[in-house]
User: Fold these one by one.
Assistant:
Number 1:
Amino acid sequence: MTEALWALGRGTGVVALVMFSLSIALGIMARSGRSFGLGRFGVQDVHRVTALTGTGLVLLHVVSLFFDPYAQLTLIDSVVPFLGAYRPLWLGLGTLAVDLLIVITGVSLLRHRVGPRIFRTVHWATYLLWPVAIIHAVGTGTDAASSWMLGLVAACVATVGGAVAWRLMPSYAERGQRRIPRSVARG
C-alpha cells in the first residue's frame, strides 16, 4: 500500500505539472486574441478545464502524501512553507505553490464577484506559481534526475516559452501593414 501511495503522489504531481503548463500556455494564447482552430472562447474553455484538472491533481497529490509514511507530510507542511522535515526548501516551494494555487483558484471561481481588476491582478500570480512548481518538481521529485523527467520539464518549459513567443509576435492582422503614427495620419 505504501508503494502505491508513493506512486500516486508522484504521478499526480507530474501530471499536474503538465496540466498547469498547458493551462498557462493556453491562457497566454487566449489572451493574445489569436487561436488555432478552437476560437478564442474554445481556447479559454480548454484553459479552464486544464487548470481545474491540474488543481484536482494537486489536491490528490497532497492528500496521497499525507498518508504515505515515507513522505511524512503534515498539515502544517501543506500550509506553511519551509517547515517540513523532508527537504524543507523543495517541499516549501511546493507548499508556496499550493498556497498560491488556493488564492488563484478561489479568486477565479469568484471572478464575477470580485471584478475584472482584482481577478487580473491575482491571476498574474500564475506567472509565479508555475516556475515555483517546476523548481519544486525538479528539487524534491524522486525522478528529478531521470532523463524522462528532465525531458518532461524541458517540454513544459518549451510549451510555455513557445506560448510567450506566440503572444509577443505581431498579430496576423498587423502583418504586412506599416504603422503610421497618429501625428502623420492626422496631417
Note: The first helix runs from residue 2 to 31.
Number 2:
Amino acid sequence: MQTGGFSTDLAESCVQAFFQASGIGCELSGQKGEVIASAGYSCDKCTLCKSTGISKNDCVRLHAFTAKASEKEDGKYMYECPLGLSCITSAVFTGGTLDRRLTIGPFLMEDRQDFIDYDLVGMMHLEAPVVADISAHLDVVPVVEPQKVSAFSQLLVYSAAFLSTSSSSEGSYLADLDLGTLKAWETENRIDPSETVKMVTSYLEENYSKDVSLLDLAKYVGMTTSYLCRLFKKEQNTTVNAYLTRVRIEKSKELLKTDAPIADIAQMCGFSDQSYFTKVFRQTEGMTPLKYRKNSQNS
C-alpha cells in the first residue's frame, strides 16, 4: 500500500525485520503519535505507565520532541520514557519534511530487579501495589546489553534512512547524513570515558545523601541518560544505580558504628525510608543493619 509516496507495506517489513533481529519492540509513527507500523512490545503496546497515572499523551509528546532532537544529534536520540525505561528515536523524512519517526523500546539496560528497587521504589517512591503491578508485567520488557544498544541504535539510523529514501526520489537522507562529517563531529566532540566516569563517581560520592537521578547526572556531564549508562557500565562494569547503592551502603556501614538511630542513617544515606534501607542492606550485606551494628560492637 502506497500513501503519499510512502509504502506502508515496506514500513511494516522494515519494522518487523528490526524486531526480529534485535528482540526490541519497534514502531513507526506519525508526528501526532498515530502508529503506522509496529512489531514486538513497542511503546504503542506498553501499558506499564497506566499503573502510575502517567498519561499516554505524555509519552506521545516526549517521542515527538525526541524525533526533532535526533536531527541535532547523530541521527538518533536516546532517552528515557516517563517511567524510566529506555527508548531510541530516529527521524524519518518524506520529501525533505520530518513527518514520521522510527522508535525502538521500551527496554532496560540494567537488571529488572535493580530497576524495580532503585528506580520505581528508591527514585519514584511508588506505592507497593503500583510497584507490584508494574513488576508483574515487566518481563515483557527486554534487557539489552549496553554494547548491543550502541549497535542497534546505529542500525535504527540506517533503517530510518532507508524509509526516508524509499519515500522520495528527490534525494538521499542516507547521503545527507554525510558519514565523513559525522565522524569529524564525533572526533571533535569526543569525550574521554575515564574522565567522564570519574566526574560521575565523584559526584555520586559527594551527593549520595541527595535524591540523585540519572537525568541529574546526564545534565552534569552533558550527555543523554542512555549514553551515560552505556559509558558507565563499560568503564565500571556496573550500573550507575548499583554504584550509587554501593556508595550509600558503605557510608551507612560507617554510621552504623555510631549511636545514630537507624532511621536517621537511612535518611542521611539517601534512602527513602528505613524499610527500604533495611531491604537493600540485607541484599548487599547478607544481614540487617541492626545485626551489622551488633556485630561491629562485638568485634
Note: The chain has two domains: 2-109+142-186, 191-299.
Number 3:
Amino acid sequence: MTIASVISHLDATLHPEYQEKYDNAGFLLGDPEQECRGALVALDVTDDVIEEALSLGVNLIVSHHPMIFGGIKRITPDNALGRHIFKLIKNDIAVYAAHTNLDNLKEGVNGILAQVLGLTDCHILRQLEGQPSTEVGAGMVGLLPYPLPTQAFLEQVKICLNLPLLRTSDFATPSVSRVAICGGAGSFLIDDAIAQQADIYLTGDMKYHDFQRAEGRITLVDIGHFESEQFSKQLFYSIISKKFSNFACFISERGRSFINYI
C-alpha cells in the first residue's frame, strides 16, 4: 500500500475542493510512491508529533492544521518550520492536512463536536459560497434534547471538552435549547448564529469586541481553539482505519494546546 493510495482515499473522503481560498489543505510533503508503514493523526505537526511518528515507525502524518500555510521564502533549521521540513524529509515522513475542508463538511469538525455536546437536528450555519449543497459550510446549529439552565449547560460543556474554564458574555437567556457551534476561530459567524435564533454560540479565539457584539441577543462562549477541534483526530483515525487494515493508524498523544491555564 503506497502513501498515494491513502492520500487518494483521504481526498475522496475529505474533499480538499471544499477548503477556503486562503487555505492550504491536501498533500503537503513527501514521496507519494513510497510504501506506507503507518499513519499518525494529530491536530498540529510539531517537534513532539514528529518525534512520536519516528518512535512509532510510521511515515505519514495526517493533521488538521497545515504545517505549510503561507509562502516559504527559506528553509533553514533556525526556525520551527524549517526544522520540521528537514526532519520530515530526512526520515521520509509524508504530511497531509485537512483544514477548512474538514471544517466545512457537515460530518467534519463541527459534526463530531455536535455529537460530543449531544446536539440533534443539526444543520450548517453558513453555506459554503458557490456550493449548491446545504450540507457543506461553516459552523453548525442544533438542539439539545431538552432545555437546560444556561449555567448548567456550560458546566456540562466543560466536562465534555475537559475545559478548566470558559469565557462568556452576559447570559442572554436563563436557559438554552438551540445551540450554535464552530470549531476553531469562529467570531465571523456571530451574526449567523443570531440570525438562526441560537440561544448560545460556542467557538474559539473570541476577542474583547467580539463579546460586545452579543448585545443581549445571544450568549457568546469561547471554548478554546484547540479544545473545540480536539476531536478531529478521532475523525481522521476512523476514516483511515476503516479503509486500510493492513497498516497501523495511531492517534497522537503528544499534541497539545499552545495555551496554558494557570
Note: The first helix runs from residue 3 to 14.
